[in-house]
Amino acid sequence: MQIVYNSFHGRYSDNPRAVYERLAGRPSLDQLWLADPEHLASFPSGTRTVPIDSAEATAALESADVVIANTHTEVEWTKPESTTYVQTWHGTPLKRIHRDVLWAPEGRLDRLDLDVAKWDLLVSPNPASTPRLRHGFRYDGEVLEIGYPRNDVLLAPHADLVAARVRKELDIDEDATVVLYAPTWRDDEVFQKGTPEIPLGLDLAELSRRLGPDHVVLARLHPLMTGRSPIPSRPGLRDVSLHPDVRDLYLVADVLVTDYSSTMFDFAITGRPLVFFTYDLDHFRDSVRGFYFDLLAEAPGPVVTTEEELVATLRELPVRSRRYTEFQQTYCCLEDGRATDRLLDRLGL
């Protein structure tokens, strides 16, 4: 059996990675990744890959028994009837997706619809997301509500060992408070003509300076922003945008700072503090993308709009609230460390 994987257009990460790691070493399986050459270094030694923008990628997809992706597979290929295409997607949606968005570049959604038409199975992370995913993608096929395989490691018996390894790799002192900054992308910035530099909405160097030497700030940009928003170099600030997988960074973070990113739902599994830096909330919600629910009413942590508020909040981290527990009950209810098992059971693997 041949299984072909695609994550974020050629990275070794996310739900496909979790499935691949579980199946690694099975001699009956021929496993192959579509890889971006710029990210080849993140693939483990011995992993079979083909360049994602190549004829080899098309051939691999058209000969696969199973395709497992976490986003649209933007490769021209004809799916055989015998192929099972599993779309795990890559996050619980707060932001409106696909046909539900407020705006998209002309022709983009029509092109992505060609991929949606190939899906045989769509993974949903929780019951609240299922109708949103169905409606956004105009998808009426099979949906599997199982949680996300990528999050199994957050509840795994060896999670502490993974955290210790990552702290060592990133040279983080044991007593440092780790702030993970993981914002989403903004459609109106990313789809500008050309590839202009996109300034971040947060001065990371100033944030690191004000938090002081007992804090380490990890900056994790969205894949669509990586390389387009420069991260300054200074002690106490690390650019981890090219770290293979954000799931490992959750394990070392004492607090997550985000805006409208689906990282909020995954990080909530840990029970650790979340802070929302929403400097452009009205514009993003009302003009750029739109939301499926009221973030201000449901956010499981403080929502701040200025850097001064953010620094003050990070110096005095919030305790877990009733709203946090309700957020977990709604969006993390299927996360028990066994999502990968449930997906493999469905696929007969």
What can you see in these coordinates?
With 349 residues, the protein is α/β, with parallel strands linked by helices. It folds into two domains: 2-151 and 337-347, Rossmann fold; 154-331, Rossmann fold, CATH 3.40.50. 32% of the residues lie in helices and 15% in strands. It contains 14 helices and 13 strands. It has helices at residues 14-23, 55-63, 108-116, 130-137, 159-169, 187-190, 204-211, 246-252, 263-267, 281-288, 295-298, 307-315, 322-331, 339-347; strands at residues 2-6, 30-35, 49-51, 66-69, 84-87, 121-124, 142-145, 177-181, 215-219, 237-239, 255-258, 274-277, 303-304. The strands form two sheets. Strands 3-2-1-4-5-6-7 form a seven-stranded parallel sheet, sandwiched between helices. α4 links the parallel β6 (121-124) and β7 (142-145). The longest helix is centred in the middle third of the chain and has 11 residues, at 159-169. The chain is globular and about 55 Å long. The mean pLDDT is 96.
Please specify the SSE layout and strand pairing.
Elements: E1 2-6, H1 14-23, E2 30-35, E3 49-51, H2 55-63, E4 66-69, E5 84-87, H3 108-116, E6 121-124, H4 130-137, E7 142-145, H5 159-169, E8 177-181, H6 187-190, H7 204-211, E9 215-219, E10 237-239, H8 246-252, E11 255-258, H9 263-267, E12 274-277, H10 281-288, H11 295-298, E13 303-304, H12 307-315, H13 322-331, H14 339-347
Helix pairs in contact: 5-8
